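Lab manual, section 2.4: Encoding a predicted structure.

Procedure: take the sequence of the chain (394 residues), apply the prediction step described in section 2.3, and record the output as structure tokens. A sample record is shown.
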Amino acid sequence: MLSSHVIRNSNEDSLYWMLQKVILLNNKEILFSFIASPTYPSIFEFTYTKLIKVDTMGNVLRTKNFNDSISVIDIGYLDNQVLYSFIHNSFTQERNKIYFLNRETLEIEDSIVGYSATNMKEINDSTLTFLGENGKEIHYMPYLILCPTFDYYIYNKNTKFTHPIARIYNYLYDNVFLFWNYFDGFGGTEKNKIDFINQDSIYSVFNLRELTLSSDRYIGFGIINYKQSGDTNFVYKIIYNDSTINFIALDEIKATRDGGAILLIGYNLKNCIVKFMPNGLTSILDIETKEKEIEDFNCANNINRDTKVNGRNLTNIGTFRVYIQNYLKNHPSVHKGMTTMVRQLASGENGLPLEIYCFTSDTRWVNYESIQADIFDHIFAVAPEFGLQILQKP
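Recorded output:
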């Protein structure tokens, strides 16, 4: 067993070293990053960082020390270089960079401005995406509240160009702020909050926090989806209607091959898995359109929504029906020029049946059977995500 405690003490000194992050460089080499203080560590008193490269047997291959006043660090890789970012306590852009280190020697070869850069993710050999502070602050009046604003950035190694993907919160928009929790969002404790399968569909996730004169609480999380070019596909908010929520931990995001994403969320000492709907913006817009229609109806008829049984509501079966409709509409093997329909039949002792009516674009028997099986395999798999159970009667 390879212990970080043994690794960090490989160089004898009197400093108090803390493990920040570890990455696997290849099948034979591991890179550890440590942060240290001459005294008992404080999050604003770190003055030393250390990189230690070891083999799988724990033998130290290379070390590199950086002596400076910093707060947190992050490491990653791009192509054949190690990415090393540390946030300097001076909070100046010149002192807060992403450094490109030689993978063998750990010496600095190049750098780019990456102010408070974290959550670095390699998209391909030349493209990097990361979360970075844009250096601006929001002053919420009449109280002085300093809120650093963050952008997602994309960097192209070939063109040496860095540009923001999208502003992911706006203090004039519903009083909702991005909140990047220090201990969960920076440095070695940071989880994977960027993932992708298709380079034109990169997912990033972030916290949403309400910041008004009467409220300062977590209200949900947001998802931004963008292309390798930096163009934004969509930004979507998921709001929890629960006033008891006091913390939301975004543990990890995993992009799925059907175009969606799975998120691991923790709140109020609970853990849950959120399956974000596939088919991208099409499905989201349809659900949002239905929500707007229901909201307009309830407002027009002066319906008291304090009691959920009053007025119209979205239901899990109704949302599931819309989801299947959009899934079929975007399925490459479903004929686009013929009727596609998902309808609800009369309920009975066996539950509430749904009927799927569509045509395949391939009429060959074997291919038809395969397409039909794939569609129902997917429907059976996602039904529990909507709180539904498929009935099987012998």
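Check your result against the sample. Residues 281-300 form the longest helix (20 residues).
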